[in-house]
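User: Here's a chain of 306 residues. Predict its fold as tokens.
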Amino acid sequence: MKQKSKLSTLNTVLSVVLVICLVATVLMVALKPAATALSGEETQEEVDVAVIDEFTAGTYGGVEFKSQEDVLNYYAEAYNKTKAQTQEYVLDSGETVTWYSMLGEEDLQVKNIMIEGKENATINKLVPGIVGGLFTKGSCGLSPSSNRQPQDDVDENGQSLTTCLLTADDLVAANVTDKGDGTVELKLQPKDVNMSHRGMDAQGKLFNTLGAIDATVDSITVLSWASGTTAENCLVNYKGGYATVVIDTATGLITTADYHMEAHITVNHANVTVIKDKSANVLVTYDVHYPASAEYLKEAVAATAK
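Assistant: Prediction complete.
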């Protein structure tokens, strides 16, 4: 019985290696400045479920909002105006660079690890530290920026990300609140997407998403599939994330913003060494807060605002 228990434990730990390989490789190869993901096989009932309050027409902070599209348009205008601003920074090396004025603070968390549909307290304590330790915090312009420098802020096809690409059609929900201090708070939730590409779909137009990870997963030599293909067995479902953005109605500029992205990673029919035909799920959340503090920029990117 003891030997059987030890073998069972080993198999469980080896199953976790699969999750570590997948998540860590995606983060290191696909993510660099920023990444994230959630998991779980999606049913039709789970698609595009609003997690924020519905829109209510009215005047907020002296601004009239007649529709959800008005919320999006007000966000886009403030986004473009804020992102057009730049700032000089002095690097620890002494070099002066010009970056976006509003840069963010990144935080990555790994949660809800399930092996064969079961949760294990030891695994949930061990894996987040391992995977999280592989993530190097950086700082980019307003999400979904790929860079701190405007001229280098492009998607995987080289198209500019310096202006808002989000459309009303990309949204599940959006709302607005008057904060009573000359600002309004907007919340926007994009539609669910599997294998999102930054700047190219509903999730990627709001968050720093991973893009297709098929090739990255296929490069993991210890991994194979009991049946099916990588595209069929490795799902990265982005859902349930939203942005909270505060805008000064007098200046039309964003004062603070928080982008909370969730990606549900599901792996099915995986073979890893002695493990055959196993499944694993993991939730990775990626949060970016704007503006970054002076302390964060000093630590994360070795820069000080001039």
